[in-house]
Design goal:
binds S-adenosylmethionine, alpha/beta, 11 helices
Length: 238
């Protein structure tokens, strides 16, 4: 995979802002053949410190609502301004994905990179908490860190070098995610597949010097990627 859009960004800025495996590369692959019109109003759900939202605004021309719980909206808006983006192009919002306050049917699309696994593991989430804010015909593009095959009953030692069984409970295989999203009556599953991005995104992450990246090094350096993948999920609201 060539990451023409992701690689335009200064690596020092990217490393300061990312919170996991290179989300710019993941998002670029996720959106390779996307169906969202330029100028569309798009929610970046679980946007973290906003680097993926910048990509959505600058490279795809979307009007972005960078929506996140753990980061501070004011700080993210300041970062957007530093990246040359105005509030007409991108807005930072601090919100819980399970209690969104947007107007109903406000969004043309939702993009979510490396965060849906925190709040979307309940089969009722889509219909009750997220889809009400999406227009009929709107697309949802989601990428989650996954497992090639669920192995929670016999976790490989490479994974346990960096993560506890409780932390690994956020990570599942395609069968698991297909079952979760198929419970929605209000959207159609367009596709779910294992992405090409894997080791390269993890390796970008463990080269960062932040505490979380450093603690993930042991597992990745021991070869944990052979059990891991990234899963793309594309949904369309009915
Ligand atoms: C691993 S970080 C990824 C952030 C960003 N997408 C990126 O890749 O740089 C996971 C993000 O999920 C967000 N998150 C977790 N639970 C959430 C919730 N209930 N509502 C909104 N965001 C949530 C956190 O705030 C965090 O920023």
């Amino acid at each position: 995979m060539q990451y023409e859009k992701a690689l335009k960004y200064n690596i020092e800025i990217v490393n300061q802002k990312i919170m996991g495996p290179n989300p710019l590369k993941l998002e670029e692959e996720l959106l390779k053949d996307h169906c969202i019109a330029p100028g569309a109003t798009v929610m970046d759900l679980g946007s973290g410190q906003g680097i993926t939202s910048v990509l959505l605004a600058k490279e795809y021309g979307f009007k972005v609502y960078a929506t996140d719980l753990w980061s501070e909206a004011e700080e993210n808006q300041k970062f957007f301004a530093e990246m040359g983006l105005t509030e007409k192009e991108i807005i930072a919002v601090k919100a819980d994905a399970t209690d969104l306050k947007y107007e109903k049917e406000f969004f043309d699309a939702v993009v979510s990179t490396d965060s849906y696994n925190y709040f979307g593991r309940d089969g009722s989430y889509l219909d009750e908490k997220l889809l009400p804010f999406v227009k009929s015909g709107g697309y949802l593009y989601i990428v989650v860190p996954g497992m090639k095959k669920d192995c929670h009953d016999h976790l490989p030692e490479e994974l346990l070098l960096s993560w506890t069984p409780e932390q690994l409970d956020y990570i599942h295989d395609i069968t698991y995610w297909k079952n979760i999203v198929s419970q929605s009556k209000d959207c159609e599953l367009i596709s779910i597949y294992e992405m090409e991005s894997n080791e390269e995104c993890w390796n970008d992450w463990i080269r960062c010097e932040n505490t979380y990246a450093v603690s993930d090094r042991k597992a990745i350096e021991a070869g944990a990627c052979k059990y891991l993948n990234f899963i793309a999920i594309v949904l369309k609201k009915k």
